[in-house]
Amino acid sequence: MDFDFEVEFKDKAMDLVKKAAQNAVKLGKKGAKLAENAAVVLAKTVKAIKEEIKNDVEAVKQRDPAAKNGVEILLLYSGVHAIFAYRVSHKLYIGKHYFSARLVSQLAKFFTGIEIHPGATIGKGLFIDHGTGVVIGETAEIGDNCTLYQGVTLGGTGKDVGKRHPTLGNNVMVGSGAKVLGPFKIGDNSKIASNAVVLEEIPPDSTAVGIPARVVRRKGVKTDNMDQIHIPDPVSQELCKLEHRIAMLEKEIKG
């Protein structure tokens, strides 16, 4: 009985091993086919975004004085890497390959520290300078030739459904650490100062600073688009007005 049991056990074990091997071969073939299909989709996607990547590299050349040449930008700039990954993931997203799209975006976040949801809409010539900590939400929209610095968030407030994230017009600059929260628009050619928290719409050709952000400069005053230093301080301006008013009142009392 012991001998028969041992033989029967060995036979069943061999059958299980054979079935497992056959299944592994089948899975291997399926995996290879999936990998081949993914490679074809990726190759087509890269070909489709080739011109967009050229525009993104050119934007860095024009706006970053530290950039030496195109090869350096393409290989060493994390902001360009994040945008490249976004271009790929966005094509996958609009093709309804949602899992693959999120996989690409999350890998890019791991390697660059920049999180761009594949559902976001981004125009040509976006420049993400340094970039660590930048977050761009699913329904965010960014126009052409915009600039984002490190720590910028284009997010939501948690109160909205559908369109939850902001829309940036063309030629918008958002300073480091700024938070733009909600489904409103930042007008063309506007500037958001560093560490500002924007909770409402900003008109075109404006400069907004503070927490919450207030518009301190509009049309009529020409400013350097990349200047983040010479930006008015609204609190300081109000204090100056108060000091002037107090001086006038003291003069009236003494007179």
Description:
The protein is an alpha/beta fold. It has a single domain, classed as UDP N-Acetylglucosamine Acyltransferase, domain 1. Helices cover 47% and strands 14% of the residues. The longest helix has 47 residues. The protein is elongated, with a radius of gyration of 28 Å.
* Named CATH topology: UDP N-Acetylglucosamine Acyltransferase, domain 1
What is the number of domains?
Answer: 1
Could you give me the name of the CATH homologous superfamily? Hexapeptide repeat proteins
Class from secondary-structure proportions: alpha/beta
Radius of gyration: 28 Å
Helix content: 40-55%
The CATH C-level class name: Mainly Beta
How large is the share of residues in beta strands?
A: 5-15%
User: If helices are DSSP runs of H or I spanning 4 or more residues, what is the number of helices?
Assistant: 6
- Determine the mean pLDDT: 82
Calculate the terminal CA-CA distance, rounded to whole Å: 124 Å
Which strands sit side by side, in order, in the main sheet?
3-6-9-12-14-15
CATH architecture group name = 3 Solenoid
Short overview:
By secondary structure, the chain is of the alpha/beta class.
Topology:
Elements: H1 2-48, H2 50-63, H3 70-76, H4 78-94, H5 98-112, E1 115-116, E2 121-122, E3 127-128, E4 135-136, E5 141-142, E6 147-148, E7 153-155, E8 167-168, E9 173-174, E10 179-181, E11 185-186, E12 191-192, E13 197-198, E14 207-209, E15 214-217, H6 234-254
Parallel strand pairs: 1-4, 2-5, 3-6, 4-7, 5-8, 6-9, 7-10, 8-11, 9-12, 10-13, 12-14
Antiparallel strand pairs: 14-15
Helix pairs in contact: 1-4, 2-4, 4-5
